[in-house]
Amino acid sequence: MDVSRVYVKSEGFVEKAIGAEKVLVPLTDNVANMNQVYNLNEVASFIYDNIDGEKTIDEVQKALVSNYEVTQEEALNDITYFINDMVNRGVLFAKQ
Predict the structure, then answer these.
(1) Which domains does the chain have, with CATH numbers?
(2) Angle CA(91)–CA(95)–CA(96) in degrees, nearest 5?
(3) Are the C-beta atoms of residues 55 and 6 closer than 8 Å to each other?
(4) 3-class SS at 37?
(5) Does pTM surpass 0.85?
(6) What is the pLDDT of residues 1-43, one digit of tens each?
(7) Measured in Å, how far apart are the chain's first and last C-alpha atoms?
(8) Residue 87 · residue 94 · CB < 8 Å
(9) Whether 38 contacts 90, CB under 8 Å
(10) Spatial distance between the Cα atoms of 26 and 90, rounded to a whole number of angstroms
(11) Which candidate in 28, 31, 54, 92 could, as Cys together with 86 as Cys, close a disulfide (CB 3.0–4.6 Å)?
């Protein structure tokens, strides 16, 4: 994964925090589609919250390493998996 890349969140989702976790619900014509709800665990929520359209993957990786007991490699693996999954679902996309 290109660690200098920046990702942004799709505007087609609403989010709700439940403790350290988060739920993402897609909107279709401003109506929540409850059949495709995405539950993010604590680490996925942290990654999602740090993707703000400004931070690079490298910056998100450093934040993850400083907040959790993971190595640089583990952090990048988690971020790569999460971003690839969320891009495939239309939740995130690469900033142009």
Answers:
(1) 7-89 (3.90.930.60)
(2) 135
(3) yes
(4) coil
(5) yes
(6) 899 999 999 998 989 998 888 999 888 766 655 667 899 999 9
(7) 16
(8) yes
(9) no
(10) 9
(11) 92
